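Async update (no meeting this week)

Hi team, since we skipped the sync, here's where things stand on the single-chain job. The sequence we agreed to prioritize is pasted below, unchanged from the tracker. I ran it this morning and attached the output directly underneath so nobody has to dig for it. Comments welcome in thread, and please keep replies under the output.
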Amino acid sequence: MANLKTLDVFFSAGSFNDNEVRKKTVVVIDVLRASSTIVTALMNGAKGVIPVMDMAEASRISLSVDSDNVLLCGEKDGIKIEGYDLGNSPFEYDRKAVEGKTLIFNTTNGTKAMRKGVGSANLYVASFLNLSAVVEKLRHETNDIVLVCAGWRGRLGLEDLLLAGNIIHKLNDGHNIPDMRDGSKVALGIYEKYQHNITEVILNSNHADRLKSLNAVEDINYCTQVDTSTLLPVLKEGIITAHG
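Output:
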């Protein structure tokens, strides 16, 4: 069983403040699609990903770096931002597009959650794609752990909560954690209820409906694949790089 102090889950990027994650180990979850896209980009050779809060910050950073090796990436309300090189579909982040590049990444929910966690002791990015890599890293953590679900504009995202519950379940081999906070108990309960048809449940979630309206069903199917990567994205000094 993992050697944890406490384990908590926040249900959206807007459900916590910076002080609540300070000096803790934070795992940011944005299944549809930022976390999955970051894992994919790093798998395909991206040098690193710089998460930003908004377009103004993205523009400011882009002016201070070598533009030949930097891509502006992201979405607003699920749609690629005008003038950006890439949107937020993992299929855009193939090796030809991102190898050797630093990505300035701006999304509606996920990157905001990542930026709010900059004062944490450690910050990792989790998706279904790298589930086991995240769990294995957390097994060795002694800090308090917070799983941060990005959600959607301050509201709960079922897909993120399911992954949080899956992490908790695997982390302790199905046993209860003595110091689970209420958020963790809810996430674990939701996962245990739906664990045998995760993809179907996510395909019928509110966020999936938004993506379906953008003809992004393939993205949903891709993002619900489990353990296609052994990479662990880690945020240090403002940039996410791959470990593993």
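Quick observations from my side:
The longest helix spans residues 158-171.
The chain has ten helices and ten strands.
Reply here if anything looks off.
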